Amino acid sequence: MQNQVVFAPQVVSPHCKLIVDVEKAPNDKLGNNVTFVKCQGKLVSDTAPELREAVKPLIASGGRIILDLGDLNHMDSSGLAVLVGLKVSAINHGYCMLELTNMTPRILDLLRVTNLVHVLSK
After folding, report:
1. Three-state SS annotation for the chain
2. Which of 5, 20, 52, 103 could form a disulfide with 108 if both were Cys (CB 3.0 to 4.6 A apart)?
3. Whole-number mean pLDDT of the chain?
């Protein structure tokens, strides 16, 4: 069972502040695996590990992991750290692309203020 990834339909933080939906999508035009991860709620210190635990195993499968942050209404430094850590893991793995989409103006401003827009968008 090496390199097997189990796609959880939904991971809910025990404090119900973050919901993470993982959905396998059809491969893209280039044949890459595509996985959508939709985040809802707050990505903060007590919920950030939930996102890391949901996404980290997907990196080993390669392809594209698209984080939909459209329903994320709050993020703190722990949330930023998880996003950066996942991006670094994807880059180090070599054949995995971690993409952010549907960022709210508030989240986008946070990424701009911390100079992480360019780091996370490449």
Report:
1. CCCCCCCCCCEECCCCCEEEEEEEECCCCCCCCEEEEEEEEEECCCCHHHHHHHHHHHHCCCEEEEEEEEEEEEECHHHHHHHHHHHHHHHHHCCEEEEEECCCHHHHHHHHHCCCHHHHHC
2. 103
3. 87
